Amino acid sequence: MHDESTRHLPSPDRFPGLRRRGFLAATGAASLGTLALAGCGGSGPGGGEDKGDGTPKRGGRLRAAFAGGGAGETLDPHLSNLFADVARAKALFDKLADYGPDLSAQPRLAAKWEPNKTLDRWQVTLREATFHDGKPVTAKDVLYSYRRIADPKQAFRAKASLEPIDLDACRATDERSIEFVLKRPTAEFPNILAAFGAYIVPENATGFDKKPIGSGPFRFVSFAPGRSAVLRRNDDYWDGAPHLDEIEFVIANEESARVNALLGGQVEYAHELNPTTARAHEGKGQIEIVRLRGSSMQAFCMKTDRPPFDDKRVRQAFFLIADRKELVDGALSGAGEIGNDLFGKGYEYYADNLPQREQDLDRARALLKQAGAENLKVTLDTSAVAAGFTEAASIFRDQAKQAGVTVDVKMGSKDSYWSDILDSGTLCCYRSGAMPVEAHISQRLLSDSTTNATKWQHKDFDALYQQAQSTRDKTERAAVYERMQRRLYSEGGFLIWGFADWIIGTARMVKGVETKAPANTLDWARFDKVWLA
């Protein structure tokens, strides 16, 4: 989950990244002038030769609009937080591994990884790759990067993910080999290498906003925080040079500004569109709509350590109150699929053999009566912090009324919602982006998990997780994860009603955008594989 806050900047600076060359951003009926975005050299859109045969073409600059973070933006990859940060970071830098479409770890800078018999030491061998200054990527760079991330004085996002590694005991066994020593057996160690924000930088690297040097597919040209970043093709990239000459990331915080810029030809790629926009333009021929199916989990979070949800019968009743199709149709405008109270639908280890839960109001009322919770009243915390949250809260309130439950919907602050709901309240709207099922469990469902919003704390469940982590055989490990998910399905605190599509808009000339990669995975926002036809 990205901790992104929506910023509303006063006019005339509402869309600084698109304003500076005459872009008139408004709300739907804006007049769109020609936007000549800044950068050094390079041809404009369509600069690549088009022979009409559908094969990748080389050349041109692609301009991609993202919501941003204002003047405080940075190119330090270890501080990546917003989607714009991540897209820029993956263009400039590499990780040892990254998540595939099913959220399994895929090798990147790491050519291979091998564990010992007890799964507490892993040997990682690097592929031959170079940084933008021509120096090779070495084991020392990897250890420097991970130790920088783990610095207790810093607030880097990947710090929690690297916690299982004993970095003091790790060592470079040669220039391109590292022995990672772990604090405990960990079968899912490759997921750590793919962790959000775990980028590899040169040893002793500093000053990322002035001239960052990475090993990624694009090299740094210029950066204006809150406005734009221009990057140029790295012809020596280990995974093949990008098709584009250049890419420019431009900032437009309002969805309407991103859409208007796309429609007016100021950008060729617009990130994170809402379902209404997609429905209005899909199949009309002016722009292309790309739907990354089921990218975002949508849920209600029940706190299991306090009344009324400390009684599992009440939680089970709420599972049966939800009409998931009505929630998907109403809150997501149909742009998604129904959930089954488990995270990670379609991902590795997801327990897809459990029966799809349906609304059963009679059974829900019976469970509430058994729990002595007839005429129950509960507050549901929500906010406009994420698309569909307020709509989902209203729909569920009406569904609960049919079971005799009174739901009081309480609107929270967009700026502090995620921190407010972590420990406070009893029931709240919740969402999460893509991550492995294992990571969801470790971050949110163990007794000492730092983001345990449901307060699910059971020592026997923790023990099962440790058993799964230390199980070498993948089939046997999957069986343990299924056992854990069966328990969550029966009595957990996440009422997962749907999985929302992630929606991207592109100009018709843009080709090569991956259509099956959830946000945060390797092939999402992977501009080295995109070209202009």
UniProtKB/TrEMBL annotation:
InterPro entries: Peptide/Ni-bd, SBP_5, SBP_5_dom
One biological process term in Gene Ontology: peptide transport
Region (Disordered): 42-63
Source taxon at top rank: Bacteria
All residue ranges annotated as the Solute-binding protein family domain in the record: 106-433
SUPFAM superfamilies given in the database record: Periplasmic binding protein-like II
Pfam families given in the database record: SBP_bac_5
GO molecular function terms attached to this record: peptide transmembrane transporter activity
GO cellular component, as recorded: ATP-binding cassette (ABC) transporter complex; periplasmic space
Protein name (Swiss-Prot/TrEMBL): Peptide ABC transporter substrate-binding protein
Species of the source: Streptomyces cahuitamycinicus
Lineage, top ranks: Bacteria, Bacillati, Actinomycetota, Actinomycetes, Kitasatosporales
